[in-house]
Write a structure and sequence with these properties.
Structural class: alpha/beta
Strand order of the largest sheet: 5-4-3-2-1-10-9-6
Order of helices and strands: EHEHEHEHEHHEEEHEHEHEEEEEEEEE
Number of helices: 9
Strand content: 25-35%
Mean pLDDT: 92
Oligomer: single chain
Radius of gyration: 21 Å
Length: 400
């Protein structure tokens, strides 16, 4: 851990987090080590001001796992913030494992002024720590949003809350009477938040659905996890957050299992997420060098309903792009050249591979399942790639 905060949360760094990362009913060193072995950099967990909580902090320090804490005296209770009370309650911030606190989840925009006050109080006391807040996903209930539209809800947050990032949770893997499909608002939701982040100079954080819950959200496959990752990367996300790692207690919401079950043991989801986490970790330092500039789609005759969004990049960016299926193309730039995240947008339930080609400017390298591969040109100067269902690829199209 770096002095004054964990460097993984520096702006521009790519990192992987997880909600409910420690279940203190089944806590031990082995289970903390398993979180890091899964490729996760930091987790959200509760802090109860007791000996058990202190033991968890020590174990996370030992294995290099960052913590964003829920202090139950303050989480979701914005009326409690004042400089003196924050200082008294959060004295355990001295642990190098603690990289910040969660302040509020899914606010109505009428709370934004209060949340900015609380954020500024927290940052004045702990300038090197993270004051975490998370927005609602795209819903059409404007009363719950407190705004006339979802676009206004996100825009007002960007204007009123002076955070370095905007975070949202979007869970698109739906099952309805046995029929599996992707939520039709999914890509548009990513686009609205990513566009606000780009315009206001904020970092894009997003939770992905890494577990089944509430009957209507289905259990992800490895291809589903990969699809969610690369969809986010195509919109420039820097922090990808799993919901969840450990299985939360069921109540008003039903949580059958997550990456670990109610006994703290690994489920198949742990292995799916580990595979995709490490694919991303393999090229994330390359990805970090690029600035996100926008996203567009390549559409064929069969266009999924979820591929409707406001496009923010030139559709000719990837020269002479041609594909036998729909693609999502995220556009990036750096001093060394252009970068692209290209994601297979065919319906996941169809298990369809997609082949595409383009003409690179010079030498092109593709990071396929995390590993670099120099792309060979055909007689016409094109390179050809095939993406499996749910797969994405990062392409460096380097300057001459």
């Amino acid at each position: 851990f770096a002095t004054g905060g964990h460097t993984m949360l520096e702006k521009g760094k790519a990192a992987i987090g997880a909600w409910y990362g420690v279940d203190d009913k089944y806590y031990d060193d082995r289970r903390i080590q398993a979180v890091t072995e899964c490729g996760i950099d930091f987790v959200f967990t509760g802090y109860n001001h007791d000996e058990r909580s202190e033991q968890i902090l020590k174990s996370c320090e030992k294995y290099g796992l960052g913590l964003i804490l829920f202090d139950w005296k303050y989480y979701q209770r914005p009326e409690r913030y004042g400089t003196d009370t924050v200082e008294q309650s959060l004295d355990h911030i001295s642990s190098p494992a603690v990289i910040g606190h969660a302040l509020f989840d899914e606010p109505n925009c009428e709370l934004y002024d209060t949340l900015e006050h609380n954020r500024s109080v927290y940052k004045a006391r702990f300038p090197d720590k993270l004051a975490y807040m998370n927005l609602l996903p795209l819903i059409h209930d404007t009363g719950r949003l407190g705004a006339s539209s979802y676009e206004e809800y996100v825009e007002l947050y960007a204007k009123k809350v002076n955070s370095d990032f905007i975070s949202v949770d979007i869970y698109p893997l739906v099952v309805d009477n046995g029929r599996e499909y992707l939520h039709p608002d999914y890509i548009n939701n990513l686009s609205v938040v990513a566009d606000a982040c780009r315009r206001y100079g904020r970092e894009f954080w997003c939770f992905i659905q890494s577990m089944p819950f509430n009957i209507v959200r289905r259990a992800p496959s490895e291809a589903d996890i990969r699809f969610e990752f690369y969809s986010l990367l195509a919109f420039g996300a820097k922090k990808i957050l799993h919901f969840c790692y450990a299985t939360p207690p069921s109540g008003a919401e039903q949580f059958p299992y997550a990456m670990t079950d109610i006994y703290g043991e690994k489920t198949p989801l742990w292995h799916f997420c580990k595979t995709v986490n490490y694919e991303f970790r393999a090229f994330r330092e390359i990805y970090e060098r690029y600035d996100y500039i926008g996203t567009y789609s390549y559409k064929t005759e069969d266009v999924p309903d979820y591929l409707s969004f406001k496009e923010t990049a030139d559709a000719q960016s990837l020269s002479a792009l041609n594909s036998d299926g729909c693609l999502l193309v995220g556009c990036f730039e750096s001093p060394s050249g252009k970068g692209y995240i290209v994601t297979n947008m065919s319906r996941l339930e169809d298990h369809q591979n997609v082949s595409f080609s383009f003409i690179p400017r010079a030498d092109a390298v593709a990071y396929i399942k995390g590993l670099p591969q120099k792309l060979e040109k055909d007689a016409d100067g094109c390179v050809h790639l095939t993406l499996e269902s749910g797969e994405g690829v990062f392409i460096e199209d380097r300057a001459e």
